[in-house]
Amino acid sequence: GYWAFFSTSVTVSLNGAGSASAAIPAAAGQYMMIGNPSATSPATVSGADSVVTFNPTTNNYTSTTTLQPGQGAWALSNAGGTITISAAR
Q1: What pLDDT is attached to residue 56?
Q2: Distance of CA 59 to the CA centre of its chain
Q3: Of 2, 81, 84, nearest in space to 44 by CA
Q4: How far is CA 64 from CA 9, 17, 46, 49, 68, in A?
Q5: What tens digit of pLDDT does each residue of 31-68 get?
Q6: How far is CA 65 from CA 10, 41, 69, in A?
Q7: SS (H, E, C) 6-65
Q8: With a threshold of 0.85, does the pTM exceed it?
Q9: How does residue 11 score in pLDDT terms, banded at 50, 70 and 90?
Q10: Strand 50-55, strand 72-76: pairing
Q11: Residue 14 pLDDT > 80, yes or no?
Q12: For residue 16, is pLDDT > 80?
């Protein structure tokens, strides 16, 4: 998902099917928010040293390399580089 601010009224069209993959440039040593770009398939995260999700029901963080449709996470690349999220098709 995305947060967006527009200073005037704007119509934004969204593709409900999502995308098969996303490549995100990551700054070294900084956690960043990522999400599964597919609305229908699980996605594998690569290029990150740590990927964690949060479950508010259990109040726990969990390490993972797979995100379900609509699921977000925090990702960390110690050296920086590209974090890739690839959904199965």
Answers
A1: 87
A2: 20
A3: 84
A4: 38, 23, 11, 11, 11
A5: 999 998 888 889 999 999 999 999 989 999 999 999 99
A6: 35, 14, 13
A7: CCCCCCCCCCCCECCEEEEEECCCCEEEEECCECCCCEEEECCCEEEEEECCCCEEEECC
A8: no
A9: confident
A10: antiparallel
A11: no
A12: no
In the chain, the amino acid numbered 44 is T
Q: What angle do CA 29, 33, 34 make, to 5 degrees?
A: 110
Cβ neighbours, 10 Å, residue 4? 7
Instruction: List, in sequence order, every residue forming a beta bridge with 76; answer none if it has no partner.
Output: 31, 50
- Closest listed residue to residue 43, CA positions, set 61, 21, 23: 21
Compute, in degrees rounded to 10, the torsion defined by CA atoms 69, 75, 47, 77. 170
Q: Are 39 and 1 in contact (CB under 8 A)?
A: no
